[in-house]
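Feature request disguised as a bug report, sorry. It would help if multi-protein outputs had a clear separator. Right now it looks like this:
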Amino acid sequence: MGVMLRLIHRGLALAVVLPLMVLVLSGAVLSVIPAWERAGAISPDSMSVADLAGRIAHRYPGVEQIKRLTSGKIIAFYSGTAGPAASVVDPSSGKPVSDYVRSPFERWMTNLHRSFFLSDGGRMAAGASAFAMLVLALSGLQMTARRMGGWRHVLGRSRGGGMQRLHTDLGRLAAVGLVLSAMTALYLSLTTFGLIPDGTAQLSAFPSVTSSGPALPVEQIEALRGIDLSQLRELTFPNAANPNDLFHLVTAAGEGYVDPASGEMLGWQDNSVARQIYEFIYMLHTGQGLWWLGLLLGVSALGVPVLGLSGAVVWSSRKHAHAPITDNVPAKEADTVILVGSEGGSTWGFARTLHAALTANGHRVHAAPMDSLLRSYPSTQRMFVLTATYGDGAAPATAGAFLKRLDAITTPPPFPVAVLGFGDRQFPQFCQFARDVEAALARKGSRSLIPLDTIDRQSAQEFARWGKALSDVMGEDLVLIHVPERPRTDMLTLIERIDYGAEVQAPTCVLRFALPGRGMFARLMGHGWPRFAAGDLIAVLPPDCNLPRYYSLASSTRDGFVEICVRKHPGGLCSGLLHGLQPGDKIEAFVKANPAFRPAHGRKPVILIGAGTGIGPLAGFVRANGGCQPMHLYFGGRDPASDFLYEREIDDWLGEKRLTSLTTAFSRVKGGGYVQDRLRGDADRLRALITNGAQIMVCGGRDMAADVMQAVAEVLAPLGLTPVALKAQGRYVEDVY
């Protein structure tokens, strides 16, 4: 389904790019006209049609028709000295404001928008383009929902490079306007060709004059006195040369004729339901009568060219990432098959490394996307499935149809299969799709070549370890040395550092870097420093190393700096580099989004639990808590005299109500302990908070996180809850290293 959506979305965009651009740009121009006309309209508080007609008739004795535009402007058509003329009039006095001439530019732009100057054929093309825009908008929304991990996350923070985020964010903003414009355009197109009734109907018969005598002054005609000016569409005066002629009145409710002698309404006909629907949809599409909506739709339309450009850049980058593998043999000749499920392209890099190693050992290897799964591979002796996970456990771009294709195969594969998952342990559905593939193969009776394994954050070391295990199984020397493509980075300059922990043999520092400066174009092309929030990750690249080290961010874009907490590890390449920095020194780094580790929006309490440098992102959450959402911090360290990170800031946050409460545990002081001990001691309060919907957020080392989970499980037991149950609700999240 996901692959099909992408093919439809991309193919349709390429097929209709030119007419669609003309349609949306001309529509954006026309959307300004209702607001422009509204700005020049003079609208009295209340006035009857009779009063208006009387004032205009006295000012223009030869008046033939009065029109009220949807903007509120009143137009009088009359016989002037040089022939037919029209004026915009002030309804309160009947005096002329200006001559009325419809803009040739507006007529030209309207014809371009409706028919491309091609009569009925052009109208059909415009309708088809509107349909294409509807499909593009809906398919784009569906793909966004999949990418964000489901419809409940569709409004969450977007991920990816600059162009990918621009495409996603702009698409979400413009989607409602584009869907509304496309649906109303389709309706109007169908009414143009009579496929849907527009409710237009003539009065059954021209009524006869019911009285004789002189015509009443128009301001005294009772039928017109009962109609407010706001309801008027048109009032056509009777022909003075024809004593049997009548006033023709058109209002928002219907139309009829008025006897000029008796003042009675003759032959009135209400608008049909079909006509009311037509006029409502026409108003929605054009903004005539809703000028502010017209402007919003116009702004949405202007997003289409940008969406087209950003989509093309994203597609091009993905195509480059999926470049063909050299020495790839046809599937029917291969003794080894590698199937790849990739979203951004990085998994293909690992597939190339595996392909090259197997080929060097004399194997005939075929690599292809997982969606290319065949019913049979006549020469194959083994298969590898290397797959990432997309969003909330879904299939990545090149594997959307894999499970359905596998389900259609009735016999189990005659060869063993090895599944290797790629992902990020920070996310709750780490390698979930790989696990789903492994389970589906098992249900088919497939034999496992090697147990399912996973690679965290594109780790070359873990991939090499997997290669060693594979070598033992295959009985051959298979060395998998994967050199990941060096990611694009920025240079960050250290502006401040605060050191802690030297006295307790745990040197730790808080490092603050200046944001790198980049131009707008560079940011749009994905080359700039992206938006980030506390809890996201900064990847630092040591010199002469392509493998990044990740640190949780303690700041957000709004703070105007990049901040991390780093403990120095003996022999640690990156931590040693960072601890050796002095203000003015630079590092290479990039940001990686971590949307799964965020405080929930709203007023529900948040329980923050961290030890050591794990306080970093938690401090960032508190710093950003300008709305004073209840936040309760549990922090563990060794000695408050040496490693109480953020002590001064925490005091300030408590005073500002950004932080509701603080509970500490320092293990190397008298009466100390660990943070999990404080949780057990606060069991009653914690249970009350959790009963009120509190979210628990844990950040720190893996051992500490395991101890905290055990303590929380004991606290939750009387409530009949477990940390696993809270995780399923998004109320227990971890950032563990």
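(second protein starts here, but nothing in the output says so)
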Amino acid sequence: MSLSLSPEIVRARRNTLGDALRRSARRQRNRPALAYADRQWSFEELNQAADRVAGFYASLGLKAGDRVLSYGKNSDAYLIAFLGCTRLGAIHVPINYALTGDELIYLVKQSGAALVLSDPDLAANLDVLGADQPATRLLRGAPGEDLLSIALSGPLPDTDYPVDDSSVAQFLYTSGTTAAPKGAMLSHAGIQAEYQTCIQDLELRATDRALAALPLYHTAQMHVFTMPHLLVGAWQMIIDAPAPARVLELIEQERITSFFAPPTVWISLLRHPDFATRDLSSLEKVYYGASIMPVPVLQELRQRLPKAQPFNCYGQTEIAPMATVLRPHEHEARPASAGRPVFNVETRVVDEQFNDCPPGTLGEIVHRSPQLTLGYWNKPEQTAEAFAGGWFRSGDLGYFDDEGYLFIADRVKDVINTGGVLVASREVEEALLTHAAVSEVAVVALPDPKWIEAVAAFVVLRDGASATEELLIAHAKATLAPYKVPKQVIFVPNLPRNTAGKILKRELRKAHTGSEAMFATG
């Protein structure tokens, strides 16, 4: 039976992200919520900041559905810019602050941004927009000239704007590894469902003391940890970037109990000399995800932080992003698993005919969930392709075991077809990482006249260690089938990665010229 509800009932039942923040502020009031640089915010102060910023957006003529693009690094102002959008009903568009030139032009124009917020040191990059540049404001900068000043003081406007919780809250752009980036449209209701999932399955608590070091433009930091922690009543500190020495110092100094990082950042922490000298005993929960964690690195992390409980988080942008989790007590038996589907997600592994794959058989991972994107902004064909069959097609390959635990093999695009036989790059990476001299490794397909695609490994050695190509190939042969063994091992000082810590394999493929190459982190 379908009911026609009065506007009063609809308003009383509404559940936008702005409503969720207001509820949290009413519960927590003047308790400390957030720290950034030398500023501290209570829950009520953040709530009021969201009201002021929403009022400011409205004073510029913005309304529900207009796009506000955020082009900045981590800060309290960056978070508050998002919170203000949730109150007004404007659509927040976070983008990678490393983008410039044509990539930046594309995102501003494709999103149809009505307002661009930027950090002062990034503002000059917007000049490439020329006469097409939308209205711009600074996120932070000279007092009185930036969004932060508005958030900190001034009258509190009436911000009960007409926002529908089924409406779009964010455009989250995919990385665009194989095509132009797509703007995944996430709704208030979908993100709220994901927050419920994270709070329950990741055991987020008001007693947590969290450190937010990964980029807030990335869905993992913002929607798995920062926002759910804010809504559950936890205290957290935001820092600009996950510089290893700074992260380790703050864990000790602030008695941090909860920290998330992708594998590349955990590796950088483990390799830093301060890891052995800092008091990290406050850590109770360590989270990893955003890319596949090599089992040897996970084992080292567990050995060196024996009291911290590990959680493996798997998902992707389009599901806001949590899909499965491997809980602490499940790590011993299945350290390589991504766990089981979370509270609001149903997951299958299917073959090309969309039949369920038997346990242990590789197939594509697909999902159904209220967390899922509403589709890609102005890309109907890509949207239809992603949801073909009534499930969201992740583009990841994996398999379930007999007890329903998911194992990720690779991204479909990263599987290597060598001589007509498929090789998962992760399996080769795992084998090489068991060598004591290897710090990091990325395995990709390189063109080959005989095999069409050859397995090639880019290797970063540990400080002070040495190894030869022949030695590492022999090491791989001890555990891998012959067709999986790398044809080449290329030694590099570092691996290219984006600001969220993901290794950019496309850059390795593009930069390789047949001789040793140098790669800068980005």
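Even a blank line would do. Unrelated, but nice: The radius of gyration is 23 Å.
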